[in-house]
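User: I'm putting together notes for a lab meeting next week and I want to include a structural view of one of the chains we've been expressing. I don't have a solved structure, so I'd like a prediction I can at least talk through. The sequence is below, exactly as it appears in our construct file.
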Amino acid sequence: MLISLVAILCGLLTVLMLFLLYKLLIRYHINLFHALRHYMDKVPPPQTLTDYKAVKVIIAFVKRTATFLPKTSFISKLDLNLRRAGLPLLGSEYIVATILAAIIFALVTLTFTLKLSWMLAIFLLTVAASAILLQRLVQRRRERLINQLGDCLTTVANALRAGFSFVQAMDLVSKEMEPPISEEFAHVMRDVSYGMILTEALDDMDKRIGIEDLHLVITAVLIQREIGGNLAQVLDSIGNTIASRIRMRREILTLTSQGRASSWIVSLLPIFIAACMLFINPTHFDEMLKSQLGMTILCAAVVLEIFGFIIIRKIVTIKFD
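Assistant: Thanks for the context. Below is the predicted structure for the 321-residue chain, given as structure tokens.
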């Protein structure tokens, strides 16, 4: 059992290392592409994972299978989260891809361990990890948008002072600024070019992103379009307010960094100690695992560890919106 567990962990670590290496190489090529696209007319786009034939077949299978899933409120909310995460997937496609990945990992685990309990555990862990990863991607993209919003307002205000219209200023942001803010404004420009009213396109961006600071900006823009006024001055005032809020966020994150680090250290320390003891003496926990009382104590310890981790995270997590 110990050998099988070590083999699974080694396999997962190998896959993780290869994935990180792939991401580093892709990031290098993408950064090089963006750096050269302003100076060359024709720059070959960077090769991505979707360029391989096997990946295209898997994507086609996922899309075809996803069409059989009914449209529910849960899938609609998942669609919104995927848009906020910047992933080009529908909610139904994400569900099919997650289940497919969970089945593959579960079958690999069954091949190594020959235990249905381990297979079921890996299946559930894969689904849970997918949900956690999606929320993490949403949060990271949200933080990047918040940090870019001040520079975006400065760019729009300067463009308005230079004689640009508001639509031209948004087009300037979509071309000159870095993702993800440029992607969102490019989305608005596409909606406007397809015939959507500007107010509806801005309202759709507000619902799609779901950031309170951006909601304030869009509200100010819509009010200005109704009653008039100096929009550049209004955007400068809002930009200063947003910059102050970002500075306050960073100060709070700095003050709570010790508590957040403690939550991970306290939670992972028992696992690390148990792994070291198993490495020194593989039969150290045999008596505990064989007795009913030992299994009860072990399950209670795991539950208390999770409960303590959640409590510490709740204490040190401060909602800004």
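A couple of points you could mention at the meeting. Residues 52 and 58 are 10 Å apart (CA to CA). The chain is about 80% helix and 0% strand.

User: Perfect, that's what I needed.
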